[in-house]
Amino acid sequence: MKLRQLSVIAACALSCGSVLAALSETEYKASRERVDAEYKAESKGCDQLKGNTKDVCMAETKGHRDVARAELEANYKDTPKARAKVTEEKADAAYKVAKEKCDDFSGNAKDTCQADAKAQHEKAKATASEQRKVGEARAETRADSRDAEYKAAKERCDAYAGDTKDRCVADAKARYGQ
After folding, report:
1. What is the pLDDT of residues 35-65, one digit of tens each?
2. DSSP characters for 85-111?
3. Cα-to-chain-centroid distance, residue 144
4. How far is residue 40's CA from residue 35's CA, in Å, rounded to a whole number?
5. Are 23 and 76 in contact (CB under 8 A)?
């Protein structure tokens, strides 16, 4: 249960990214250890179950762990690739659980269940890929815009001479991360 709470907190951290600072390395490692500890505790609860119910429980538990890890990683790295990984992990987790649940059926019902699960999985993976590409394009656009603004600021500095020009260029470099 606490793993789910941590997942919710991590999801909030991702959606509130502008409000919350990224995790430090120490916070990231501590959070990852907590996720792993919660996984172990949650998986022990599955050990009491039998048959396919146990398999479904374990798939859900592993899915929670993997999603929580991906959310922590996304908050720590704050890259489009890491954020897309969260969507991929959610898709993979849902697919694994759905496949396990399909084992309760037989014949055509099982085949249909598995086909539906695979279709949902492929759709979610495509969404994750699209999300990653959009994020990368936005990051590239921001970098291009920042470079253009730096060049314009540097050009304005050419109107000055000596120390004033040097300070102007240094300020522009600092402002635009050059």
Report:
1. 999 999 999 999 999 999 999 999 999 999 9
2. HHHHHHHHHHHHHHHHHHTT--HHHHH
3. 24
4. 9
5. yes
Vertex 106: Cα angle to 102 and 111 (nearest 5): 60
159: helix, strand or coil: coil
Q: How far is the C-alpha of 76 from the C-alpha of 70, rounded, in Å?
A: 10
Query: How far, in Å, are 46, 109, 176 from residue 105 at the CA level?
Result: 21, 6, 59
Which residue, 11, 97, 2, is CA-closest to 41?
2
The rounded radius of gyration (Å) of the Cα atoms in the chain is 24
Q: Indicate the pTM of the whole model.
A: 0.68
Spatial CB neighbours of 65, under 8 Å, sequence gap ≥ 6: 3, 35, 36, 38, 39, 42
- Distance separating alpha carbons of residues 102 and 68, to the nearest angstrom: 25
- C-beta separation of 139 from 80 below 8 A: yes
Tens digit of each residue's pLDDT (9 = 90 or more) over 18-33: 334 578 889 999 999 9
d(CA 178, CA 174) in angstroms, rounded, equals 7
